[in-house]
Amino acid sequence: RWVLSLECKGSRNFMSALRRAVEVDFKDKDKHKSQGLYLLTTGIPDQETHTVSAYVAEACGGFDLQLHVCLFSVTEGTDSSGIIPAHYASPRETANAFKEIVQAANGSFHWFGEAGIFESDDITCIISEMEKAKNYSQKCAFLVESLKQRS
């Protein structure tokens, strides 16, 4: 319920927010086996992707911390007031940047919009598991048929 009372505010200063989360909010990180940060965003950070990725890799490498990103694409290139953000990137460029950042943090990336899901690491993993199961099933069916023909 508390999420419903939150108001959207702030900036796209990703590094500042991440530093706060990692260096202040996770001060008891040694007491936990694993932790995750979830970034819900509509746009690209103001900092360069390689800089953010390097910091994320270093920050997450010392303990079991994963950064997961949920990118929500809204009307391309504008915020709700029609103003182009300070650091603009196309939706594909934004998605690629966050995918790189998430890889550095061993997290997962999810990209969706009003039209539905564009990309999701979890869905990709599920589809891969389903393909493996299908292939295994086909091999088993082939083996059963071969045994029947030998009898």
UniProtKB/TrEMBL annotation:
<protein>
    <submittedName>
        <fullName>VWA3A protein</fullName>
    </submittedName>
</protein>
